[in-house]
Amino acid sequence: MYDLAIIGGGPGGYVAAERAGAAGLKVVLFERKSLGGVCLNEGCIPTKTLLYSAKVYNYAKTGDHYGVYVSDPSFKYEEIVERKNKVVKKLVGGVKAAMKAGKVEVVAANATIKGRGSEGITVEAEGREYVSRNLLICTGSEAAVPPFPGLKEAGDVIVTNREILALTERPEELVVIGGGVIGMEFAAFFSTLGTKVTVVEMLPKILGPLDDEISEMLQKTYEKKGVQFCLRCKVTGIEGDTVVYEDPEGKVCRVKGDKILVSVGRRANLQGFGLESLGVELALNPAGRPYGIKVDEKMRTNIPGVYAAGDVTGFSMLAHTASSEGEVAVNNILGRDDRMRYNAIPGVVYTNPEVAGVGLTEAEAKAKGVDYKVVKLPMAYSGRFVAENERGEGICKVIVGAKYHEVLGVHMLGNPCSEIISAACVAIETEMTLEQLQEVVFPHPTVSEIIKETSFTIK
Ligand code: NAI
Q: Where are the alpha helices (DSSP H) in 315-375?
């Protein structure tokens, strides 16, 4: 008898296993592919490794901006990919070691839920049955690939985040369908290495939920780097290596690529592991279609002892959300009262420059009818930013409640905002006001000071 069975070894599952193991629970974790899930194997980590190679190459190419001359910078794509594989392998090994340290039993097999009885919940894998008092479902998500006419016939020209990472040669021309996070990170990577990139996006802006001003600044930056954006464009089909789309005037246009990346969102993995045997309630979208497992703020499903965390819940599909949700589930299993809060979940896009945001955007504050104020400063107000970002642009925007100046949102563009957004997460999580933020001592000279500096511009 186990205390906790976990299906899925991504950042939702393995972090939960680690915490539960450390708390003394008897844990079994089922993972059919590779520990670390999408994040470690075909998402966050490999893409950040590739993007860092692109950044280093870009530094070499633009060294003259800093008085440093590198003659004829070049790269070997296969070595960039090899390094990415090495990093992934090392980190997967780290997760394995953490499981061992927590005495978590890892079953490298496909798990199927058999049902719930008086003993507990039964999960079967490779002919063996495992009975557990609690079950945590962390089966993640997979790339959503719409049935565009001609998509199947296009064969391996079509790639998702998974196949594009396995390429051993750099495409000369890449078409990206969907200018969201995945689309923009790959557009950033390949365009830096010299690939001609076209992004076809159906909305009027890239990175939909992002602050409008920041989204436009990032688009302009990448336009200058040669990326072509086709906004308000609807993909109508694929003809071999060509994406066919309608422009905003209804004109039929075509763009060709050696590879076509489909990055139009992800969908929760709800099938193929016996979920139906438990009668777990699913969350439905306004059209009545299930998009994830329905959970409450303690990550409980409608079935006692059954929890879900991560992308399988169908919203906030981010690795750090998954880990936090997993921790909340474990805390509740341990009898500690813990609730998941979504108001301070940071989002980062690892383009160059980076984009990072947490909390409400101006558009969201407006839509929610919040009485708010916005304060903002160019990143150039930070000495360190100027020292290290020759010709670089950036912005820091803080959204506060109009009356009490409580921090509601912070949104930034400029390196290394992915690292400094954590300060803003703390401010929102602890319900700080701008005046309290002004009292915090930030190290000088750092780019993080921009947050404090911006807070002083409130009128
Ligand atoms: P996304 O939801 O971020 O973006 C999809 C984009 O595709 C949207 O802008 C949408 O308007 C557009 N789109 C949808 N259908 C289209 C069509 N038929 N034609 C043209 N455009 C279309 O989804 P994405 O980029 O696939 O990422 C999936 C998930 O992975 C997201 O939830 C994201 O948060 C997560 N992720 C997070 C990363 C990070 O935190 N840095 C990195 C990569 C992924």
A: 319-333, 362-367
Look at the pTM and tell me if it is higher than 0.90.
yes
| Contact residues for 54 (Cβ-Cβ < 8 A; gap 6+) | 188, 189, 192, 193, 352
Q: Do residue 126 and residue 272 come from a single domain?
A: yes
Going by C-alpha positions, the residue among 102, 147, 151, 111 that lies closest to residue 131 is 111
Q: Which residue's alpha carbon is nearest to atom 9 within ligand 1?
A: 180
Q: 317: Cβ below 6 Å to ligand 1?
A: yes
The answer on 239 and 190 residing in a single domain is: yes
8 A C-beta contact, residue 229 and residue 207: no
Is 411 catalytic? The answer is no
Tens-digit pLDDT profile for residues 19-34 = 999 999 999 999 999 9
Domain boundary (231, 264, 297) is at: 264
Per-residue pLDDT reduced to its tens digit, 78-111: 999 999 999 999 999 999 999 999 999 999 999 9
Atom of ligand 1 nearest to the CA of 144: 26
Catalytic residue among 65, 320, 405, 444: 444
User: What is the number of structural domains in the chain?
Assistant: 3
**Is the beta carbon of 24 within 6 A of some atom in ligand 1?**
no
Residue-wise pLDDT for 300-359, tens only, equals 999 999 999 999 999 999 999 999 999 999 999 999 999 999 999 999 999 999 999 999
Domain that holds residue 167: 152-264
